[in-house]
Structure formats: structure tokens, C-alpha cells
């Protein structure tokens, strides 16, 4: 796609000969999508930490996740994929700040020793349980279940192996833990957007978490794909700038 951006005239010339107001909503959304691709290729998300631990997510997704956690007030947050532990620390810090007597369960096929040590040494570790194992193995799922009580409100975040097949297996395995009006979140669907950038892979057009979430939603009446409502908005914007498209699956029954 060829765009002609003219800052002096305040316009963007589109391939179909339309002219957009450079400072209008449509142009903002167009440039935001391009920025997402460029920022992903530049590893922009690899520049952030949360309370000392690398978190490797785009800031808008973290703020939207914070809004969801505040609204749902889960007592258990299950996260597949630990990496450096930043997301576990984020979840634990939010529960603590809200005064929720909650727990965060982190699952990863391999917890590297230096990451385990850093997480275990963190001030919030008393709220965190680490489980090492394949996220979709029956033994692993059984261990997760042991930490969930019948009266818990449960939120699940999927951020491990991002292949379509693995995410679909996770959706089928972990959705049963999600309580009504809470969510299972299939992160990093940006893969299908960035399949054609230098760091991307052509097969990501279909082999990605967003496609898995969309197909899962189409196969069940218990969940709907639903971007959580913004808690505050004094703009005309209504589209998220996200690395997590089609991520949010809300349990409706």
C-alpha cells in the first residue's frame, strides 16, 4: 500500500485517490496499524518492565488488562507462559492494590533458573504459584486445578506457545476454569498482522492465536469474543491499538 503523507497540508493520499485528514480518526487508526507493525519489528515491547521484571507487552494492552482486572476482580489469575515473570508480577500487584485476597498461577514448559530465582525473590512472590510443565498436559492442568477453589472468580491469560494448534488446545483445556462474566484472553494475535515484516513468518497469516480464538468462539455458545468496555473515554475513538486482536473471550453461560 502506497501512502502519501503531507504534514504541511495535513493530509494522507490513499491508493484509491481518497484524501484523509491527517489529524482525523480514520488516519489515526491507519497510522496506528502501521505503527504496530513497525514497533513489533523493532521489538518495542521488549523495552518495558513491571516492578523490576521484563514484561514484553505493548503498554496499551497492559492498561486495558488492568481495566479488566479491576472490573472483574478475580481471586485467581491463571497465566500460561511466564518468560521473565513481568506479567505475573503485574497481576499480583493489581490484586494487592485492590485489596483482593487473590493468587496468580504461572505455567510454563520451562522456567529458566535465573527467572525462577528473580520471581521467587520478588516482594510479591507470596501471591504467586509457579508450575513447570506443558500447559496442555493433563498433569499440568490437574496441578492448576488444585489451586482453584469452588468460590473463586477466575481469569485466564494465554501467553505461551502462540501456534494456532497449541492455543486451541489451551482454550479447550482452560476455559472450564473461567467463571461467568470473566474472560480467557488469547494474547499476541498481532502475529497475523506482522506476517510480512522482516521478523515475521508467512504462515502466521493463519497460524496465530487470534484465529484460534475466533474459531473457538464460533464453536461454543458459552463464550463470546468481546473487547471489554473502556472505563473512561472522552474521545471519538473506539478502536484499540493492540497487539492482542480478537483476544478477549467472555464467558456468558
Topology summary:
Layout: E1 4-6, E2 11-13, E3 19-21, H1 25-41, E4 49-50, E5 53-54, H2 59-72, E6 76-80, H3 86-98, E7 103-108, H4 113-120, E8 128-132, H5 138-145, E9 154-158, H6 164-174, E10 183-186, H7 209-218, E11 223-225, E12 248-251
Parallel strand pairs: 6-7, 6-9, 7-8, 9-10
Antiparallel strand pairs: 1-2, 2-3, 4-5, 10-12, 11-12
Helix pairs in contact: 6-7
Share of β-strand residues: 15-25%
Main sheet properties: 7 strands, mixed
Overall number of strands: 12
Please provide the ordered H/E string of secondary-structure elements: EEEHEEHEHEHEHEHEHEE
Radius of gyration: 19 Å
Q: By helix and strand content, what is the structural category? A: alpha/beta
What is the mean predicted local confidence, pLDDT? 98
pLDDT under 50 segments (min length 5)? none
Q: What's the number of helices?
A: 7
Describe the strand arrangement of the main beta sheet, using strand numbers. 8-7-6-9-10-12-11
User: Could you estimate the helical fraction of the residues in percent?
Assistant: 25-40%
**Termini Cα gap:** 43 Å
Shape: globular
